[in-house]
Design a protein that fits this description.
The protein contains 8 helices and 19 strands. By secondary structure, the chain is an alpha+beta fold. Helix 3 packs across helix 5 and helix 4 crosses helix 5.
């Protein structure tokens, strides 16, 4: 996958949007432009986010949407920056729905044999009676022939339970990082940017990175992250790793940002986190098919509140202190 098409983090995207708003507040001063250049020079991810926003802006020009153009160009004067951010969010999501999806996902994903949308899961029984379940936002090709049974996971996550029997053909799940060969087993494969995570629930799986001649066996109760040229150390598998197949997400001491990233896979639009909350961690179980209810469970446990501009633009921000009249 082209690295320039990899999504940036919600935090960096949020910062890029803030810079667009600052530049839109009338004639931007030389000092503001200098500060922006400094931010862009800090990280390649900053530059990538800025380029992606620029691509959205260009696309809005081609679809001739006056409302979207006004939202991008709106001034955040008189202390109304929050309103500007909400309108900008609407413009960005409108552009996303029209054209950004094709830019952020390669063509093979859209042409995959099996594909799921945000919030959708799909159960499939293959011709050899192997059962697979695709998680939200996943794409997979099925390549069975006389020599082998092979799946290619383009994106997302799949739970595999190989069929009991005597089929002599090897069963392999392939990703851009390499091959995962089942050894009579139940396991999960998840794409994570430029890596693949393998979680073995039963029996064992042999992991072979694409640029290596030899791999490693990962056994039940273990997980490993596979890169193109190496394998990370085996680790204990997370608790209830397959709970998503039953509509729940179970986490233990997980950074709040990672939780929101997982929940964001099950809903359209933008789900962000205020940078000041990145150190917070959380444990618990959350419903995946009602992410609004999952988000509502955060404030009782953490010093946060849910800032909702629209159903498509939601952000977790610090809780406001309770005011006491007369004090």
């Amino acid at each position: 996958m082209n690295p320039d098409r990899q999504p940036v983090s919600a935090r960096v995207l949020d910062e890029a949007i803030t810079w667009q708003l600052r530049l839109g507040e009338g004639a931007a001063s030389a000092e503001i432009r200098k500060e922006l250049q400094g931010w862009l020079n800090e990280s390649t991810e900053h530059a990538k986010a800025w380029a992606q926003l620029g691509g959205i802006d260009q696309h809005l020009g081609t679809i001739n949407s006056p409302t979207a153009r006004r939202a991008l160009q709106i001034s955040a004067h008189a202390g109304r920056r929050t309103t500007g951010r909400a309108l900008l969010g609407l413009a960005l999501m409108g552009a996303l729905g029209v054209g950004m999806a094709l830019q952020s996902q390669p063509l093979p994903v859209w042409l995959a044999d099996e594909r799921t949308a945000a919030g959708e899961q799909q159960s499939i029984t293959l011709t050899d009676n192997t059962h697979i379940q695709l998680n939200s936002r996943s794409a997979l090709d099925i390549r069975f022939n006389q020599q082998e049974r092979r799946l290619f996971l383009h994106s997302g996550e799949v739970l595999v339970e190989t069929a009991a029997g005597t089929d002599p053909r090897p069963f392999v799940v392939e990703t851009e990082q390499g091959d995962l060969r089942a050894l009579g087993t139940r396991f999960i494969v998840r794409r994570e940017n430029d890596a693949t995570r393998l979680i073995v629930l039963r029996s064992a799986v042999a992991a072979l990175p694409g640029n290596l001649q030899a791999g490693r066996t990962v056994r039940a109760g273990e997980q490993v992250v596979m890169h193109r040229d190496h394998l990370d150390d085996n680790q204990d598998a997370p608790i209830a790793a397959d709970a998503w197949s039953r509509g729940m997400l179970v986490v233990e001491d997980l950074p709040l940002g990672e939780l929101l990233a997982r929940l964001g896979e099950y809903r359209p639009g933008y789900l962000g986190l205020d940078p000041s909350l990145e150190s917070l961690r959380i444990s618990g179980s959350f419903p995946l098919h009602d992410t609004d209810r999952a988000l509502a469970a955060l404030p009782p446990s953490l010093p946060v509140q849910i800032e909702r501009h629209t159903d498509w633009w939601v952000k977790v921000v610090p809780a406001q202190p309770v005011s006491h009249p007369g004090k």
